[in-house]
Amino acid sequence: MSEIDVPESHPRYQSLLTRHRIEAGVERGITSKQGLIAEGRGEAFDYLLGERTIASADEAARAAAALLLLAERPVLSVNGNVAALVPGEMIDLAAAVGADVEVNLFNRTDERMRAIVDHLREHGADDAGVPIKGLAADGRIPGLDHERATVDADGIGSADVVLVPLEDGDRAEALSAMGKTEIVIDLNPLSRSAQTAAVPIIDNILRAVPNITEHARELSAASDEELERIVREFDPERALATAEDAIRSGDLD
Length: 253
Ligand code: PTJ
Fold this sequence. Notes:
Layout: H1 13-27, H2 33-49, H3 55-70, E1 74-78, H4 80-85, H5 87-97, E2 100-103, H6 110-122, E3 132-133, E4 139-140, E5 150-151, E6 161-165, H7 169-177, E7 181-185, H8 192-196, E8 199-201, H9 205-218, H10 224-233, H11 236-249
Parallel strand pairs: 1-2, 1-6, 2-3, 6-7, 7-8
Antiparallel strand pairs: 4-5
Helix pairs in contact: 1-2, 3-9, 3-10, 3-11, 5-9
């Protein structure tokens, strides 16, 4: 038995684990109630994808790893769903690519900001030497209304590459308008955030984050030329179209 009272061999194990983590996140004041709705939508897409990483999503994860390794100031953005689902995995990824983590919320309150920062620390941020940002709140994303625009000036404010999982479309577009290169993880290939991203990863965040980390570790000794080639050869439109096809046709290969 694991974190939930269901054996890992259960056919719905991953989905039940995800629901459990989101529910626990809401109870702990980490995840917003809207996060429950976002999770339901994601789950439906994952079901249609066959709850597995399709080949184009794996290629996207590799391109994401290459982009993060090439970046001068990479930042991984964490919201209430991400914190509930993959806190330790986000720290591992940040450590593998030398990124900062920044808490950035759609429904921002001081209590949730602090609860998420504490949660990430409990999951090893300090031991891994990963800075957790978001509380300074001394920067702004232009073109967005009040709370959602708040960022750290030395975090997302000055990042060149930002990983924005499960993001709301407006903010993804505004970050892109600031000239940031965005990596988006979203199970919906039609979402504006996925459409805006330089690298859209159409996969469950539970699978995508450890997969990017694995690629980053494999590529840690690669030259800049090799990393640039991987990024150049990645085609975001093709990745979106392939995922949409897999969802619509039920053809999982
Ligand atoms: O914590 P906050 O306040 O920042 O709020 C976060 C949410 C997620 C509530 C907010 O950003 C939101 O409302 O997002 P949306 O517009 O519902 O978009 C969430 C997207 O994430 C949808 O396209 C879902 O399909 C997708 N999604 C949900 N769960 C997963 C997912 N993608 C990958 N993995 C998942 N587990």
